[in-house]
Amino acid sequence: MNQEQKFLPRHDLDRLLQQLKEESYNCLGPVVRDGAIQYLPITDSSDLPAGVELDQVPAAYQLEFTDGDRLFNWSNGPQALKPLLFRPRENIWQVQRDSSGNLAFSQADESVEPTAVIGVRACDLAALELQDRHFLVPGAEDPHYKKRRDSLLLIGVDCSQPSDTCFCVSTGDGPDLRSGFDLAMTELEDGFVLRAGTKRGQKILDALNLSAATETQLQQVAIQSEQATARQRRLLPDAGVQKLLLQRPEHPHWQNVAERCTACGSCTSVCPTCFCFSEHSETNLDASVSQQVREWSSCFIPNHSNSHGHPVRADIASRYRQWLTHKLAGWQEQFGRSGCVGCGRCISWCPVGIDITQEVNKLVEDTG
Amino acid sequence: MNGDINLPREAVITERIQDSQDTFTMRLSVSGVDRFSFLPGQFNMLYLYGVGEVPISIVPDGDSHNSFDHTIRVVGRVTNGLGELQPGARVGIRGPFGRSWPIDMAKGRDLLLVTGGLGNAPLVGVMEHLVKQRDEFGHVDLLHGVKQDAELIWHDRYQKWATLPNTRVLLTADNPSPDWSGSQGTVVDLFSQLSITPQNTTAMLCGPEVMMLAAIERLRGMGVVDSNIWVSLERNMQCGMGKCGHCQMGPKFVCKDGPVFCLSEISGYFGKKGI
Ligand SMILES: Cc1cc2nc3c(=O)[nH]c(=O)nc-3n(C[C@H](O)[C@H](O)[C@H](O)COP(=O)(O)OP(=O)(O)OC[C@H]3O[C@@H](n4cnc5c(N)ncnc54)[C@H](O)[C@@H]3O)c2cc1C
Ligand code: SF4
Ligand code: SF4
Ligand code: FES
């Protein structure tokens, strides 16, 4: 890939959006809705959250509205790219039953249009790569996920203001975009430094016909990156965690967490790497067609582990242990890396402020 | 299958057998195919129209290439409805899924098969392999336990297996009736009747976890090492192919990495509460 970096003046951002439209992409971008930032359809840059900053701490997510010009000066919203690809609820197939009882199974239809997502974060892309490893296992690709995955064009942005809850530096996934983007942007005061990650991204970049970023601009990019990195305080211990979690299921700290955890499942629904789902059948009134529905599930739901009519994980301590152990140890064996990308969502969206980094540090420190 | 891993195939019930009061067998063939291949210990996701899917072990139907059996205990929503179906009815099938019993690795060795309740279903395939290739293995002990003798299914199969050379079949019931000819007690109680060569024995277990855990303790006590003990596990399964996450036990997907495991792969967490 041509690593040349270009500069897009702030007042020209709509040229980028226009270019995407000309190439028949639907555009999704960060929009303030219901007090949070969400990826939603946008028409032009006036839909983007100008001046919005964000304070995230355990159990709290608070937008701040400043009169600044920056559009991407916040860390992340409650959802990464997960719901765009792995839908919270969808029909995966249907079966028709004729009058003699014959069954005809067919894939649920869905038309998918090329979609460009703007403002994607490094942690979102790291999580996407992990979901790809799960849903696109060679030989066992989920066709619904694949179709939508193939339709995406990803325009990332380097994080300039990580929140207090962010720890992507510790997991090695951010705050700068590493890989997985078609086009990357760094937002500066007066515009954006752009670089392409794929041929598709390069094509768009070339079409914009921009001048090269200046030495000063590139220096500003580097300084901003250093500052964003330095803001992060939380650390997720790495060495030894996998072994400890798998081999010490009876650690007393699980009970300590269980006394605070409400088992609401918020953490699993905001976590961009969680992939559990349940299936059920829905049949129409004359019983001639039945849809198979898959919906997000969570290991915090008691019947998630039902076997012989009883949950394997009957108490909250064992369900929290499942979540954390799967995330930090199970993923290692299943997918070759930890399932945590340091986005901090599970910390801010936990109603009682349980903090994955603190709990892991407790588990590692006091060996019980 | 048009490449969609989620999509069931239609199968027809060709025969229905009532095995015991609460257990029946449906003989199935997949529509439009002349071969349905599977290995002993694998399972299908069996779909009842409009109700849902359940994981059920595949039992071979003799030497047939396209016909196989599902022997099912009626316990709840889906199994109830499946029990109502008569020959000619259609169901959906996804599979076969999962890892099979280590028949090749066990060649030349003695076998000890220990099952409880319907845990014998996934091992029928191993015994039928034995019927055809008896000389591949050494001594074989087959132990099976039920609660009441009325629960015992496949009398004729057990009789046939008992006539195989160098093969012992021991049946037991917790609460037998007066005309029961087997032993009384649990399947683990039968271990006192065994005289095995621990280093040369491969054990295959399937049944309730408490039963398997008790059997494992006895086997270890007799000197059988974990790497020669295999178990087939049950967990909640929604997809059967390593996607839905429900069947996880530690880092394993029971549906895909199992359901048959070597004990040494899972000894760190198998049997620990809440994992
Ligand atoms: C790999 C694998 C292979 C299996 N092979 C077989 C097989 O060959 N034959 C077979 O009959 N079953 C088999 N099972 C178990 C079978 O999948 C369950 O019995 C079935 O899913 C129950 O579904 P249901 O909708 O009828 O019951 P549900 O509606 O889910 O359960 C209703 C009630 O039934 C009871 N219940 C549920 N499951 C069981 C159970 N297994 N034993 C006792 N009580 C129960 C509970 O009290 C529960 O409250 C296997 C399971 C796995 C994971
Ligand atoms: S575990 Fe928490 S911090 Fe890690 S990826 Fe999931 S939501 Fe983000
Ligand atoms: S088991 Fe829990 S932690 Fe693991 S993917 Fe499922 S919901 Fe997430
Ligand atoms: S049954 Fe879905 S992952 Fe195992």
Task: Give an overview of the whole structure.
The complex is a heterodimer of chains A (368) and B (275). With 368 residues, chain A is of the alpha+beta class. Chain A folds into 2 domains: 6-88 and 109-231, no CATH class; 239-276 and 298-364, no CATH class. Chain A is 32% helix and 25% strand. Chain A contains 13 helices and 18 strands. Chain A has helices at residues 13-22, 82-85, 122-135, 143-150, 168-171, 199-208, 215-231, 241-247, 253-258, 266-270, 316-335, 345-348, 356-365; strands spanning 6-9, 26-33, 36-41, 52-57, 60-65, 89-97, 103-107, 115-120, 136-137, 140-141, 152-157, 183-188, 191-196, 211-212, 277-283, 289-296, 306-307, 310-311. An 8-stranded mixed beta sheet of chain A has the order 3-2-8-11-12-13-1-14, sandwiched between helices. Chain A has a 4-stranded antiparallel beta sheet with strand order 7-6-16-15, with no helix packed on it. In chain A, β12 and β13 form a beta hairpin. Chain A starts with 5 loop residues before the first strand and ends with a helix. The mean pLDDT of chain A is 95. With 275 residues, chain B is an alpha/beta fold. Chain B folds into 2 domains: 9-97, Translation factors (Elongation Factor Tu (Ef-tu), domain 3); 103-266, Rossmann fold (3-Layer(aba) Sandwich). Chain B is built from 7 helices and 16 strands. Chain B has helices at 77-84, 103-106, 124-132, 155-162, 209-222, 254-257, 263-266; strands at residues 9-20, 23-30, 43-48, 52-57, 59-60, 67-73, 90-97, 110-116, 140-146, 167-173, 183-184, 201-206, 229-232, 248-249, 252-253, 260-262. In chain B, the strands form 3 sheets. Chain B has a 7-stranded antiparallel beta sheet. A 7-stranded mixed beta sheet of chain B has the order 11-10-9-8-12-13-16, with helices on both faces. In chain B, β14 and β15 form a beta hairpin. The model of chain B has no long low-confidence stretch (mean pLDDT 96). The site of flavin-adenine dinucleotide has 19 residues of chain B, from β4, β6 and α1.
